[in-house]
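I'd like us to work through together how a protein chain folds, taking it slowly. We need material for that, and I hope you will provide a protein of your own picking. Go ahead whenever you are ready, and we will take it from there:
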Amino acid sequence: MAHDPVHIGKNTCANCAIRHRAVCGALNDEELAELGRIGRVRHFKAGDIILADEEATTFFANIISGVIKLEKSSADGRQQIVGLVFAPDFLGRAFSKSNPYFAQAATDVEACTFPNTGFEQLLKKHPDLEHRLFENTLNELDSAREWMFVLGRKSAQEKVASFLYLIAKRQPLIGCSHAEHNPLGPHAANFELPLTRADIADFLGLTIETVSRQLSNLKRQGTIRLLSGREVLVPDLRQLQSIAGASDEAVA
């Protein structure tokens, strides 16, 4: 369940950190105010079920902060993590009558939520918003295909390195456009793992023992440092990228 839903005030969107990267970034100020009138800021605690598999679609969301894991259930009741959702991703399938997966908060999550009927009406009214959402869907499809390659063709070490690289790319302290301001160095990253080792194993199709062994190997090689709790330090993302076999995005 969500906690403390709050109406989106007139200054909320203007000061939003994800506005220009989220689907709502396609709207001008007047159109954004129209979207804000139907929206609510909602907070979810880690472990909360945000969307339930096959239940009727009631709302969509722009993720402001936090990480959500997407899960599918098999006929015998087993669940498999099939994806992760980060800020500023869009959660939900527009014009779908039911949710295609479980969405559970892996960490504490803040999101702008919009009722399905009102949001779908705005999509029809504002082609730029619909176009941005379509682009977002295509990006999700590309990411899913890329991850299928990771799971199907890579070694255990490459899978674990790919997962860490995925998380590092989505954190604010990675060495990208603001690398010169990174106190850890231009190519370093420091982040909290959003999943337990059991969840990481589920996501990668490995055993917990294999995940732990590969994390230890990466630590021994100096590729990562395992700090307290789930905190990970990557001294040089280029080295992690090389081990992961990732070439889709430059780190520098």
Observations:
- Residues 127-153 form the longest helix (27 residues).
- The chain has a mean pLDDT of 85.
- DSSP finds seven helices and twelve strands in the chain.
